[in-house]
Amino acid sequence: MTEIKFVAEETDLHLLECRKNNFETENILLLLTVGVVETIAPSANHGVTEAASLSEPQRRKPKLVLLKPAPTKCKLPSPAPQQSPDKISPNLDKSTFVKPTPATTVNINNPQTVDQIAHELAHNDARPATWADLYWALIGSREFNTDEAKVKALFSWLCSIPTDRDAFVTMEELEQGVKDGVEFADEAKKLKSKTLSPDSPEVVVNEFTRGKSTYLRAFESLCRYSGIPCRMVKGLAKGVDYTVGMKLTDQKMPPEPGEQSPIHQIQHAWNAAYIDGKWALFDSMWAAERLAMSANARLSQIAKVGKMEYETDMFYFNANPSVFIYSHFPFEEEWQLLNPPMTLQQFQDGVLLKPAFFTHGLGLFSHQEGVIQVKDRLIVKLAIPPNLVNVLLFTFNLKLDGRDEMFEGVNLSRFGMHEISPRDCTVTFSFRFPKTGAYKLTMYARKVGDPLFTDICEYRVEAKGHDSAQPSEKPGSINIPPFPPTAQSHYGPTEKASDLKVKILPPDMDAIRKSTDGVFEVRFAMTNPTEKLVRMTARLKSLLHETSELNGCILVRTVDACPANTLSSVKSGGSTGTVVGHPVPTCVITAFLPSAGEYALEVYGAPANADEDTSYFLISRNAPRIDFANTQLRAVSQKVKRSLQSEMCVNKRKND
After folding, report:
1. Domain limits of the chain?
2. I need a labelling partner for 654 at 20 to 30 A (CA). Which of 95, 248, 390, 638 fits?
3. Is 0.90 surpassed by the pTM of this model?
4. Tell me: the pLDDT tens digits for 490-507?
5. 260-284 pLDDT per residue, tens
6. Where exactly are the transmembrane stretches of this chain (predicted)?
7. Quick one: which of 327, 620, 641, 328 has its CA closest to 478?
8. What is the rounded distance in angstroms from the CA atom of residue 347 to the CA atom of residue 335?
9. What is the architecture, at CATH level 2, of domain 351-480?
10. CATH code for 486-569+576-627?
11. Least confident of 7-21, 50-64, 431-445, 531-545
12. Which residue stretches of 109-170 are H helix?
């Protein structure tokens, strides 16, 4: 008998943002599993690896290469005056404030792209000796027409510079460069001032790279010396020290120095700059500290090498105030730049929304508050833009008490599933909670073809259990089984179905179906009827039966059938008839369900011209179900428990 390889598709690495100061190390790893049916681990879909401890890189002493000095025609603008804490200059104009956008609204928020010239200059071996040299390279030589373009160049450069070397060449380096005959060294030494102002970019940015200043001060210095008013905005930020459900109201704001309160823990500061006639918001620290990863690199591997590479997240450049407010809450209400402003209560109660939530244009369809109280089940829905419903992929991570991913030897990812509805333009996540307690629920998304998932939102779920627990049950036990054992949590057509140009019939069929007679059928055809039908096979999975018991419960056959959407009614004279389209090759898969319970039907496909030894890729997963009778519930529950205990013993032997 030919051995069939089943491949559970997904990207090898599922890495999210890691920030050095707001350090988020919740990284999800999706394993690519290749092998015969028996070798695919049922819990391989959501294994999670923690980021290794990262040490600060050693400072480099690079070979001196000088940026060409600015020409004599370069005229530097007069520095904008430092902003007073008590006076805003220019004044805030409330007519420029924007209307808040509810998180329920589907609205794609596209950040600007990085200024590529500034980015390349930051990584160039050639460094500026003076502020004039940098200003000319970034702004003076480029004939910008707007303040925004100027600030974009400054922002992109600052967020891209390596922090293990001085950004500006020092006088000591120039003196040595003159001795070594380095190009431009003599000219640069003559132009470099020996008495620099302590707030000048040459001083502040070099102090920043040495760990003695901040992105905040460096960005302010760059803007001011470019003639653009800039100031600091203090407030709260939902960063690494923030947890969903943290109480922020009824506390003094801002807190007293040294006060140990939730508000003190999540204090943050960002910038406001006056560009093109209005104030705008910037957070260069959060923009600069997103870890750049390739699809085939792992955080632990990079940590061993000791070289971390970061990319600039332009979501925080001239940020949309109606989006920025979901993560940044200023102590002074006017700096929300919103009309009407958000209250601290709303900020406290809201879902933790990440940049990708807005860049993908998602909306909160069901739950608008970050803390959700349930008994033992939960359904969360997100709205998807219609043009992205077939483009976005999702997954999730579930942790008990924010730490434990296992429950009695079973990964908590087994207690969740999700499906995308093209008809409703939603993604629906369904969860079961096997134990009372607080769960950290994080959801992720990526576009088809992108190598990495990114976190989009986070909830805190408090599972209370039922009021009438059985006396024999353990304290905190809910006694609820996980979903059938599958390689991933996604139900419905997969990314590989699109690659193989296969469609399910009908296209809007729900992934979760109830069967009253124990028979479940699903059909597939090619999106282009003229193409040859791919090869398909299927597996049936359940916690109630061994895999071997279900091998004979699947019937796969190919027939010529008329797709449902080619049927139409016509009138001819006084009678009505039906016109049927041309029959097309259709794969019909029938599952015979041996007993009441839940099942997962996994359908695998391979190219039509593939040889016998080819790998079959998962193209669809459906969840047929026969409802329990009340008298069967206890017996079935006990059978599920025995199945899980057996699985746990097998896993333990493998670990040993």
Report:
1. 94-340, 351-480, 486-569+576-627
2. 638
3. no
4. 898 888 888 899 998 888
5. 777 888 999 999 999 999 999 999 9
6. none
7. 641
8. 15
9. Sandwich (2.60)
10. 2.60.40.10
11. 7-21
12. 116-123, 131-135, 147-160
